[in-house]
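Our collaborator T.R. sent over the components below with a one-line note: 'Predict the complex.' Nothing else. No constraints on interfaces, no templates requested, no preferences about which chain binds where. So this is a plain run: every listed entity goes in together, and whatever single assembly comes back becomes the starting point for the next discussion.
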Amino acid sequence: MSSRLKDVAALAGVSTRTVSNVVSGSASVAEETRVRVQAALDELGYRPNVAARNLRAGRTGLIGLAIPELYSPYFGELASLIVEAAQQRAWTVVIDQTSGDPDAERRLLEGTGGRLVDGLIISPWALGPEELTGRPRHVPAVLLGERRPHGLADRVAVDNVLAADEATTHLLASGRRRIAAIGPQPHLRNETAAQRLAGYRNALRRAGLHPDPALEQPVTTLHRTDGAEAMTALLDAGIRPDAVFAFTDELALGAMHVARRRGVRVPHEMAFAGFDDIEDGRYANPPLTTVVPDKRQIAERSLQCLADRIYSPASAVPPLDVVIPHQLAVRASSGWTDS
Amino acid sequence: MSSRLKDVAALAGVSTRTVSNVVSGSASVAEETRVRVQAALDELGYRPNVAARNLRAGRTGLIGLAIPELYSPYFGELASLIVEAAQQRAWTVVIDQTSGDPDAERRLLEGTGGRLVDGLIISPWALGPEELTGRPRHVPAVLLGERRPHGLADRVAVDNVLAADEATTHLLASGRRRIAAIGPQPHLRNETAAQRLAGYRNALRRAGLHPDPALEQPVTTLHRTDGAEAMTALLDAGIRPDAVFAFTDELALGAMHVARRRGVRVPHEMAFAGFDDIEDGRYANPPLTTVVPDKRQIAERSLQCLADRIYSPASAVPPLDVVIPHQLAVRASSGWTDS
DNA sequence: CCACTCTATTGCAACGTCGCATTCAACGTC
DNA sequence: GACGTTGAATGCGACGTTGCAATAGAGTGG
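Returned assembly:
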């Protein structure tokens, strides 16, 4: 059905090795032969067998991207950038959705499924630091988010503590004093939410305010519904913050949606700031103030780390901690202008 | 570095074939031997070499998903469902972003990159029908969207004409008469926009209205910005429709955003309906009326088609045309209640 | 007790490709 | 005219796995 080097060689009247040389273009081939072989290649519609190449080369040219969920805007945008950057490096991306399942994350890190990928970019959700960095890995890995690496994997992330601090400070600067935090996840081993909470508290304390536990609304996941529920819980408890720092844009949008439905004027009575700079935030009503991580750099640097580990020998290089720059995009949701 | 069957066999004092039997669990192995081999497997941390397996099996266990862009909500949600459904079938998904590049789409369909995937699900953007179905393919393919198949590939899609008709009819039912259509793409060979335009016109004509070219706003791509530009163009031209049917939710959200910014009251003065049922639409202000394709079924049926083609011999089965059910979700953007 | 079946295990070969070493011919140089 | 050099093409083997056929041994029934 599909033709192999052998078939092409037979048709062109040369050895398989010569055909291989023509295909790869590496060794020297006489012009006349090259033309003849090329004609045979075209006639048979030869396509190299990737599995055989991989076996020979000891590499698959695949890298894995393991994220909790592909359908959320943040991970969708990030995945898109990673796929794009990988294409430029002639890598193909295979996507795994862990759905926040610790076993799935563990399985991927250990490579239990077999040596399919040359490297792995994983955004951990359920696994704690020690599990992530403790055990040996069969494949180079880059952790997105999380805290600084102790173990074997590189880490690429923004400075969550600083960024959360800046966002909160921005809200304080416009005179807000009762600022709610939507997004703590005390039930998870994951560090990201904890870091953003720490930044939020830092900012409050620096402004001379005491963090109020009643204003910290935990969530189970990071979807709009969770933000909506958190805001509902606050309002139903009679708590009326004058600003909200949500740990992700989706949480912020869900919360803002409920606030407006309940008749709260945004941003007059309640300002909002989020984290991630997803596209919807820019088109929300009002547009959402947010921390803007440089997602393109996250993608680029992650792949760079993988490339270094994959291609450099033995890699005695200690685990890297790559800090990605971020900005604060101030939009109407935290200003005084009406939407 | 990494251990092979041979290493495990040496350690356990058996042949590689026996180790292989233990790993696969297919052939019968004495309990005592199984235990001993398993111990060796664990000790060496054996991981099967996927490339070798693939070479032997003639399959890679990979399927390709080619979509214009991963970061758009619709494709993100769809990709997520396809990855999920593929995992259940023990398939791994590799993602290609075509970015609307006809060459990229062609390359994937022809499998120029080599026989990497066992099957391909492609959502064409730039290629026209004849290119999609004309030439022979090296790998089973499923087309998402597009029109009915003439050639070799199966096709999975909602009935775009009917769905667009229903959405428009719904707008007409609330008394709207000047209904704009945002989303025609006359510059593309792709059929989807043309089908939705046809459905929109059908509904108008059935209501005794003449489709007005001035109310049909073409777009280049399907992002929020395109919807925003389209609405800006309409309003700047002094055209003030009393309803908008946008061919995707993103277009609708962008258009609605601009309308509200310009002081148009939604839905009182202008009703909106979209297509796709992306999550943001449900949390928009006001929530967006939209055509809801059964995305889970799109994922399931696509994979089913691929599975049939991949596993069934010779496949004399003619190309399938799978029509996916849809619904119309009526929300506040097309009602009379305030947001 | 022999023929036969069944279980457990094994060796061989092949999947398609490419690195390495080799061969062969042509050519130029001393 | 012998010799080294270069260019072109080839054959061999190995990457790690598993299907197939074969083997040896244990168990069963007449």
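Summary for T.R.: DSSP finds 13 helices and twelve strands in chain A.
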